[in-house]
Amino acid sequence: MDITLTRWPDLDRAIWTAVTLxxxxxxxxxxxxxxxxxxxxxxxxxxxxxxxxxxxxxRNRIPLWSVLLGLWVSLGYWPINPRWxxxxxxxxxxVAVLTVAMAVSAIAVRLMTDVAEAxxxxxxxxxxxxxxxxxxxxxxxxxxxxxxxIEITPVLAALGVGGLAAALALQEPLSNLFxxxxxxxxxxxxxxxxxxxxxxxxxxxxxxKWNATQLQTLPGNVVIVPNxxxxxxxxxxxxxxxxxxxLSVEFVVDPEADLQTVERLGLEVGAAVxxxxxxxxxxxxxxxxxxxxxxxxxxxxxxxxxxxMGDQALVRHEVIKRLQARLREAGIGIPTLAGxxxxxxxxxxx
Length: 350
Known about the structure:
By secondary structure, the chain is α+β, with helices and mostly antiparallel strands. The chain has 10 helices and 8 strands. A hairpin with a 4-residue loop joins strand 7 and strand 8 (298-306).
């Protein structure tokens, strides 16, 4: 510095470095306190959340950026060897670019989440968020290396050779990763869909991870399915093309029963359950089908619809309970195997 404060040049440089760091940091804190606070109030009045993420990232990064800027300015105060000065400048640039990349990735993920939430039936998986972060971090790292004067072409070539070696060594994890990407991009299975894997578990997709898909079963347990196995399995998606699903309640009536009465009671009970029970489909029509004869009597099926797989248990419960009561009121018996064995054991009964 041209302005000397003491007789010791190094002390003058230290004082000016402290003043520069403190001054720029105070300016940054003032910006965060007054400008960012106003931006936060403005962002809070909007329905989206990505602008809140912008304010949040600026509030958290401004102190560090102020320190980095102060260090960069303070380098001119010291008679540093050009090699070390360049190295220090490149290090400051690297840290600054990486922190900017972290902020951009957080904002991009929040923006992507907002867009997904505005689209019915679309949710952002953990795999998608991680891929976006990795892409932005990689771009930020390459920009930082290029700004530091490091030629990135050899780096990319080295990454290509190293990536080939890693692909050979990590075949199973990479197969799960790419299978998860293909499943996500295809859109045939999404978060919130209820699926059944042939010969395997069934449940609601709660998230896609880089190595596996998480299924939440109806009892509340979590099943982890590797993405590679899921992509090769035969899967039934009960949310495509619609989320509602049909179910059949089968029973047997006495062979001497009035089938017209049985059909009428089944239609009335099915319509009432779908209209009154949570999880039923009020706009759908119930159906009754006679399925055949058995040793006990006539096999009957009452077909109703539920809003989702999770609603089937309650709908089935109410249909069975109400149907038994209505059949009992009408004097129509529901024979059982035990009752049939007792009847046949009586003298004179064939």
